[in-house]
Write a structure and sequence with these properties.
Helix content is 69%, strand content 3%. With 387 residues, the protein is mainly α. The chain has one domain. A hairpin with a 2-residue loop joins strand 1 and strand 2.
Length: 387
């Protein structure tokens, strides 16, 4: 009788956790209000609708890419030669960028193809996730060995260095945090963690003296002392903080954000779209916005932990880290908690390359979902023990 009861309960639990493999509609639908919020914010302050119309096209392209990738079997990404090829191709693309790239705001970050431009550093973030997922998936048991941290760090550092010297400090720091996050997910001893922190201090000192441009140093110094130059290097961050605070509880209403409408807030469609949104929608809108991001991260990790192998689990974790870091840095610089680094807000900021990268990452995750485990392997193990 006891075994029968356990069998009934455990079979019920297994059925309760079963989901049809394919598109995670909760994840996909959670992105739509964010896309809509970005479009509404852009349209509020642009009379000719330029940003709105272009972003709408990029949204359609990105969503189409998402569904196409969701039908592909991505088990081929586990092959070593794929990771090596992606690494070489990425480094080559970043190197070519210095010869033929388009200079924008003092950085050589874009390939210009006439009617469209492409920023490779966005797509390369996915490459970093794939390379690290591949590397750690076969060495997760030996991750305590510092050698694997150094080797994985070398792969990430080469790409990090190419991006940093463009100079694109925002993308470079995100690549660093992707590596750090995936190392932590894979498992690392505390002594190695402190060692990494020490190395990080040394690398930062080196970058400060030989890598950072003057405007990047000024942004960091302004972060340390925000009131030092509010009419110069600290102007953007100061106006952003004013916009966020002026939204108060329920906001000023769509189209009535004075900081953006009167052009006090610069780059309100990209770097400071969070401030523009907060001014219009207030604290209530920000809570809803953050809740949607929580849902997205929850669904990403839910799909990740049911990955067929460690590679899929680590890839999903990397996508979650990518979105979390982008979100935290963008919001942090909008409320003067972090230096201004030109980092976009996922799904809201204007731009095609970052939007395609985000939906490509989710699309690959959906493709992996088609051959995932129905339940986590620990739950299956418990079922067998009880039965």
């Amino acid at each position: 009788m006891k075994n029968t009861i356990f069998s009934f309960f455990n079979n019920y639990k297994l059925k309760e956790t079963e989901e049809k493999n394919g598109i995670d509609w909760i994840l996909f639908l959670a992105t739509l209000p964010l896309l809509g919020a970005g479009l509404m914010t852009m349209n509020s302050f642009t009379g000719d609708g330029t940003f709105f119309n272009k972003q709408l096209v990029w949204i359609i392209i990105s969503i189409t890419l998402f569904f196409i990738l969701s039908f592909i079997d991505f088990r081929f990404l586990r092959k070593t030669w794929i990771s090596v090829t992606l690494f070489i191709f990425s480094c080559s693309a970043l190197a070519i960028l210095f010869a033929v790239g388009k200079v924008t705001n003092g950085a050589i970050s874009w390939f210009n193809f006439g009617i469209i431009s492409f920023q490779p550093s966005d797509a390369i973030k996915l490459v970093v996730i794939i390379i690290l997922a591949k590397y750690f998936s076969r060495r997760h048991i030996e991750i305590a060995n510092v050698r694997h941290i150094i080797v994985s760090g070398f792969y990430a550092f080469v790409i990090f260095a190419f991006v940093l010297v463009q100079p694109d400090f925002g993308s470079a720091i995100i690549i660093f945090f992707i590596w750090l996050g995936m190392v932590l997910v894979s498992g690392i001893s505390k002594k190695h963690l402190f060692g990494m922190a020490f190395i990080g201090v040394i690398l930062f000192s080196f970058a400060w003296n030989f890598g950072f441009q003057d405007y990047q140093k000024n942004r960091i110094m302004n972060f340390i002392n925000p009131l030092a130059d509010i009419h110069g290097t600290g102007y953007n961050a100061n106006q952003s903080a004013i916009a966020v605070g002026s939204g108060q509880i329920i906001g000023k209403g769509v189209g009535y954000g004075t900081q953006s409408r009167l052009k006090f807030l610069p780059e309100y469609q990209t770097d400071f779209i969070f401030a523009a949104f907060a001014e219009e929608w207030g604290f209530v809108g920000v809570i809803i916005l953050m809740s949607l991001f929580v849902v997205i991260i929850w669904r990403i990790m839910r799909n990740a932990v049911r990955g067929d192998t460690n590679f899929e689990i680590l890839f999903g974790s990397g996508i979650a880290i990518l979105i979390i870091v982008h979100f935290m840095i963008n919001v942090g610089m909008n409320i003067q908690l972090l230096p201004v680094t030109g980092t976009t807000l996922p799904f809201l900021s204007y731009g095609g390359t970052h939007l395609m990268t985000e939906f490509a990452g989710l699309g690959i995750l959906m493709g992996m979902r088609r051959y995932r485990r129905v339940v986590h392997k620990d739950l299956v193990k418990n079922e067998n023990i009880l039965l």
